[in-house]
Amino acid sequence: MAAGLPDMPPAFSREDLGGTLYRVCGYEQRLWEELGHLLTQWQKCSDRQQGELVEARERLGAADKDRADLEARLAALEGQKAALETRLAEAESALEGVSGRVSVLETWKEESGSGS
């Protein structure tokens, strides 16, 4: 694994063309090795991010499904609440009718009792 890019290419020397060529080839080889290392690291990072993206999309899909389920349950509960409110209103109405009859009976009883 390469440690980093070399600072500068080797200096050109007219007196030592063979040595200069050898150093330039070594420098080029180190550049290629570093490029290979960087590309490998980039690919690993890209693969990891792709996996994280897939997982995030799956979690988002599950959250959307949960939200839809909760909305359906809420709608059902609201329907039940409306039905219970209707039954309560009917019961209150019936209670008022019974209460009116009881009142009439009490009045009749009092009138009958005082007339005897």
Estimated share of beta-strand residues: under 5%
Name the structural class.
mainly alpha
Which of globular, elongated, flat, extended, rod-shaped describes the shape?
A: rod-shaped
| Beta-strand segment tally | 0
What is the share of helical residues? over 70%
Task: Using the CA coordinates, give the radius of gyration.
Answer: 45 Å
Identify low-pLDDT runs: none
Pattern of helices and strands: H
Oligomer: single chain
The pLDDT mean sits at 89
Describe the structure.
- It is a single chain.
- By secondary structure, the protein is mostly helical.
- The chain has one helix at 17-115.
- It is built from one helix and no strands.
- The longest helix has 99 residues, at 17-115.
Quickly describe the structure:
The protein contains 1 helix and no strands. The protein has 116 residues and is mainly alpha-helical.
Write the layout of secondary structure elements.
Blueprint: H1 17-115
Features:
116 residues, mainly alpha
